[in-house]
Amino acid sequence: MRTKIASPLAETAAGAIAGEVLRACVHCGMCNATCPTYQLTGDELDGPRGRIYLIKQALEGEPVGRLSQVHLDRCLSCRACETTCPSGVQYHRLLDVGREAIAEKVRRPLRERLWRAALRWLCVEPWRLASLIAIGRPFRSLMPAGLRGKLPARVSARPSTAGDHPRRMSLLTGCVQSATAPHFNAATRRVFDGVGIALGETPGVRCCGALSAHLDAPEEARLIARRNIDIWTAELDTGAQAIVVNASGCAAFIRDYPDLLADDAVYSVKARRIAGHVRDPAEVLTDHPPTAVRAPARRRIAVHQPCTLRNGPGLGDAPARILAGLGYEPQPVADAHLCCGSAGAYSLLQPEMAGRLREAKISALTEGAPEAIYTANIGCWMHLAETAPVPVRHWIEAVDDVVSDPGTP
Ligand code: SF4
Ligand code: SF4
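Above: inputs. Below: predicted complex with iron/sulfur cluster.
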């Protein structure tokens, strides 16, 4: 497709990325077939081809309005469209540039601005969310069902340590995750200890910046990214072999740091090094397989494939493969390519669409009558657990259940 990005964006690295993606698109529409939002609404502008057209208009300097923003807001950033594009269009790279450009041109209604600002304030510092959850838990039974479902149940985390091994990696504990599900991090550390890897935390790294980027604060996201890059660079320089990220949504965002910082000559180079060292636990455990010491208590399971694990790094089936090797029986799940509706802050910003997607996903996940559902991303965990009829957990917990000695921290 021909395009001429307008100045001043045309003179930037972000503009070059957008131009490259636009020129690769031949406007064939094959991507619509795998787009969850297009399937829901049937509206061309809720599919990738229509959204590419809207972004093109905006970046070429044509007038844009609220309609463009609404259709881009409805995009899940799930990248399912990229898996069926015959031209290899990297839609998500264009979307990021387009969203930022449109946010600069179109002022959101006050209610949306306030909601987004409040979510950002709450989530980027774990103590704020943790405090709110702690205050809310005693009143759980008094809450309306919709709100009650959003309050994660307390799960006591067995304490864990990094262990003492020559091989060392660095764990991102996460902002929302460390407030709502610290037991995911404890389980990850125990499992890594068992395969001979000391998994240390990096004080100072809290949020990856994804929520800021999703909530119209790209400069805040860049600030967070630069701070994280400095800390992780020091970790790598002193012997850490990888940055382990057990929330696939955060991992996807960090892998995109080079684009986020494309116009920063110094940090875009550093960002590439960091992005190249991000590892999902499934990648590490594929290379260092754990050994089961007991049989699973709940053998029949369903494993959800977060879009951020499946459509970017292509690791969608890795957790199920690892669990099958440990004695679990993952059941087949239809339409694994369709997003569950979590998508970062999407379930809070687009609750109606997110609810419909979750309904379909839970129906697919429970088709094989599993005793538990496992996922690889904190957002999917929270979203699915709200209405799932069986327990929803992180897949690393299932590994921990069968490989760790329950008596040791
Ligand atoms: S993104 Fe790919 S599949 Fe979609 S319209 Fe463009 S070329 Fe076709
Ligand atoms: S990222 Fe997902 S929701 Fe957005 S256009 Fe692509 S397939 Fe559709």
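The mean pLDDT is 93.
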